């Protein structure tokens, strides 16, 4: 059974909130974890084929000038599909990133075989006392080492991977050793009030 600590953690920066409304990816960042160690990373700006708004420029720090010389979304996503081949996937607020991953890969008739788990949903259940479950807030709350850069894809993927591994370490304190990827998915779908019962039953 695939382990929770051998995954690809990814993050997209995009022109807006929904590919269904014509929004596109403008940056992908990802780190590959094997047994809890970062073994590879992927980072690339991509040109969506139109100008991005001044809001997105200021929010991400990715300017139209930077995107002008970037390769196309199609070119970048073809490379990224090879990077994630056969891997399970993690993202913070995974439904958002999955929408863009699916939409961009659909455009070039490519797919992937791995499944997604959401670090945001897992954090809401394992770190219930955090003031917020935004990535930056959780990183601060857990005192996770960071360089203060957020809303750039690789930096956010790196932070998400540290948060993910931190939550796996927390589970070991509950006696849940080497949780599987599927177990983390189960946590994400468990009612908050029933998480302790789930962990008690799952002790090694």
Automatic annotation (TrEMBL):
Gene Ontology molecular function: exonuclease activity
Top-rank lineage group of the source organism: Bacteria
SUPFAM superfamilies from the UniProt entry: Ribonuclease H-like
Reaction catalysis annotation: DNA(n) + a 2'-deoxyribonucleoside 5'-triphosphate = DNA(n+1) + diphosphate
Pfam families: RNase_T
InterPro entries per UniProt: DnaQ (IPR006054), Ribonucl_H (IPR013520), RNaseH-like_sf (IPR012337), RNaseH_sf (IPR036397)
Record-linked Gene3D superfamilies: Ribonuclease H-like superfamily/Ribonuclease H
Keywords: Exonuclease, Hydrolase, Nuclease, Plasmid
Domain Exonuclease residue range list: 6-173
Enzyme Commission number(s) of this protein: 2.7.7.7
Signal peptide: none
The keyword Nuclease appears for this protein: yes
Keyword Secreted among record annotations: no
NCBIfam families referenced in this protein's UniProt entry, alphabetically: dnaq (TIGR00573)
Protein name according to UniProt: DNA-directed DNA polymerase
Organism listed in the record: Vibrio alfacsensis
Taxon lineage: Bacteria, Pseudomonadati, Pseudomonadota, Gammaproteobacteria, Vibrionales
């Amino acid at each position: 059974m695939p382990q929770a600590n051998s995954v690809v953690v990814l993050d997209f920066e995009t022109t807006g909130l929904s590919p269904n409304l014509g929004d596109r990816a403008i940056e992908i960042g990802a780190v590959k974890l094997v047994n809890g160690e970062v073994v590879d990373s992927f980072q690339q700006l991509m040109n969506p084929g139109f100008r991005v708004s001044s809001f997105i420029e200021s929010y991400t720090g990715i300017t139209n000038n930077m995107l002008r010389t970037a390769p196309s979304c199609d070119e970048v996503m073809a490379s990224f599909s090879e990077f994630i081949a056969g891997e399970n996937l993690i993202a913070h607020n995974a439904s958002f990133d999955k929408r863009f991953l699916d939409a961009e890969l659909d455009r070039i008739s490519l797919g992937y075989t791995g499944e997604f788990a959401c670090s945001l949903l897992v954090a809401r259940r394992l770190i219930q006392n955090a003031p917020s479950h935004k990535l930056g807030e959780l990183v601060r709350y857990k005192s996770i080492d960071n360089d203060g850069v957020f809303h750039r894809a690789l930096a956010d993927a790196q932070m998400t991977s540290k948060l993910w591994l931190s939550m796996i370490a927390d589970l070991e304190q509950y006696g849940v050793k080497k949780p599987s990827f599927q177990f983390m998915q189960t946590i994400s779908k468990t009612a908050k009030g029933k998480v302790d019962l789930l962990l008690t039953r799952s002790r090694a």
